């Protein structure tokens, strides 16, 4: 499928008449790493003349980068420039620890829409049951109590504040066990 | 499976279709499928005859004792095709399984055929995914494999994954399910973090190898090094250079101190030079070392500065050196004491000028594998050619990986290498300027070449001296390098280059094409020639439906075909899918595709014994 590509460059007239492959509304950005949208291969210059095509690129100002060309892995590109890898742009990752379990896990809070989803996921992850949540009494029916540390450094009971507020203020999660947990049973 | 194979037993069907387990050549598959379909009973009669003289179980016992010595998977695949009995016994004795495409078969099929697997090598995403030519979350999940193997192979010892998506949960399951687990190798993988690594470190008490290579590992702020158990470990290899997370150095030092079998250690760039110094003094038995950062925080004239050269001098056994992140070149000479022992040197993350480089390489007479950035220039390559007569593998990466970059290496470096390193077997060379003459020279000087990958970074660049296409250069490579199995082409190329490849590329298994060729004829030459072609990856080349149809007779005998940004139509791809039911034909779009479009952005097709996969993301359509 051939289509005249979209090209910013007006100086090089040849470009306008060249046949090229490209999707409609082609972007001219380089995509890298983890972006969900990827830039589309924007131009494959189809040679109208049969042989001996000379470099048309040399005359034009810096052109758009082609995705994935030259074929150097992003890992290598990032390391040569010794750039520290960017932490994930999207996603709100918080550490989750459980009393008695040796390892931390991390979860992305943006993956959940409400408390029940989050609780279910935690229960699955650490193989425990959290009991039932009551507004005044906190969690009943289990030794485990899910708590979180908020922006102010206070330890709160998970579920006490509206979900959006929780997501924006939660720094880390801790699933407490036993007597220590009872103290937090009376919500905030 | 299609009904028309009723003549063959299911076993034979598997045999002729066992290509996913990487048969050596299409010829064997063709031969066996044709012979078993025409004379299925003949071979069985032979066996029937034998079983009258020796009971079956005796024969199989003997066979088992013999076949257990077969290591090479090509030999094993061949043995499994002899007859049903051999197939059965081979399946019982195969302890290492290689799966080149994780979607070529289901995990269940693996565990049903092979009962005593100790080691699995599994590859996932196609290579072009490394260059952002595919949206993330395409697939290649390790989860179904680990959960199936957890039940079937409790004795599993080794897992080696490439381009797979591995989660922390997968690693946790692995650590929980395989008490004798010894080796974990993750190459170009992603989806996990230091939490998963911590679980493996802690629970796999017999761990010998933990190699994380060019993988994306998220920093969960877990001190995974401290998670290794107390006491003497079995560790032989620990590579974590791709883990971009700070390391608890005291814990690392302690770990190295109680790992007497540790031979291979690859540090990340967050381990400083001073820390490296301490480690080296405590681990003189190392044979392979990846340094961390190779720079100094303090002023170089500090009196307290450790004697790095002495530390290296103590490492008499080091033969393989890599790392050198954040290099301060004035510290490079500290490696001089080990240079004459080195067989492998990787400078590909270090921006080293020719002047800094030459005194070092001058001592590396035994070098066989050398990776570097093009910052060493043609001059540096000439120095390599003058000294490294045993060189087998060379990789030169671009310091500035853009199309318009300067390009400090050229045909001069290539020519010099070809003249100095006659035993060269494998080369990957990024450059901006090249000539046919230099490529021809290499084809004539280096007859042992099995891998030739030349990347002229500017697209469609001709021979910069003659202005001609690069056809003759690549033509000479395929004509003269009789052992060539892997080829990557670039520069201005006409259909003629492909004619040469089709005609002379008798052993080529892997072919990478980008921005090359004039017409369908080019691809046709390759598909109608190149009898051993297994892996074909093409991007941005003018090959369309006509060309695609030319390969229908052979797609079953290939591992995969990738074509992106080529003028293919959905209709034709559908035809191919219809005509070849055991081929999975994936059309991969971007996230915001609309289905009405006939344009095929990326075609990725591969044979599969178990039909299309069930974890298809929304941007993939299986035709």
Q: How would you characterize the overall build of this protein?
A:
The complex is a heterodimer of chains A (188) and B (623). Chain A contains 5 helices and 9 strands; from the N terminus they run αββαββαββββαβα. With 188 residues, chain A is an alpha+beta fold. In chain A, the strands form 3 sheets. Chain A has a 5-stranded mixed beta sheet. A two-stranded antiparallel ribbon of chain A has the order 1-2. Chain A starts with 13 loop residues before the first helix and ends in a 6-residue tail after the last helix. The relative contact order of chain A is 0.12. Mean pLDDT of chain A is 65; it is low at 1-13, 26-63 and 83-90. Chain B has 623 residues and is of the alpha/beta class. Helix content of chain B is 34%, strand content 16%. Chain B has a 21-stranded mixed beta sheet, with helices on one face. In chain B, α8 packs parallel to α9, α15 packs parallel to α16 (377-387) and α19 packs parallel to α20. At the A-B interface, β2 and α2 of A face α10 of B.
